[in-house]
Design brief:
This protein is mostly helical. Helices cover about 55% and strands about 0% of the residues. The protein has one domain. It is elongated.
């Protein structure tokens, strides 16, 4: 079972360390890499292309056409 705990007092870290030593829990300290992975990609890359409105519309149409090609059977 995974539970997220917010530490509000530094003394709690010592308690968690003792519990980990007793093999009651496992402490995973998150780093920035994990936080970035957990963000939604749409938020992470929104606006990254810096396209004009016309170029963006063409890009969207090309994506739609490509997706439609996937739906066609290959015979």
């Amino acid at each position: 079972m995974l539970v997220t705990v917010e530490i509000i007092h530094d003394g709690a870290i010592d308690l968690l360390s003792d519990m980990e030593r007793l093999e009651l829990i496992k402490v995973n300290i998150p780093n920035k890499t994990n936080e970035i992975r957990n963000n939604e990609l749409s938020k992470q890359f929104a606006g990254a292309l810096h396209l004009s409105d016309a170029a963006y519309e063409k890009y969207q149409n090309d994506l739609r056409e490509g997706r439609n090609e996937w739906r066609k059977g290959i015979y």
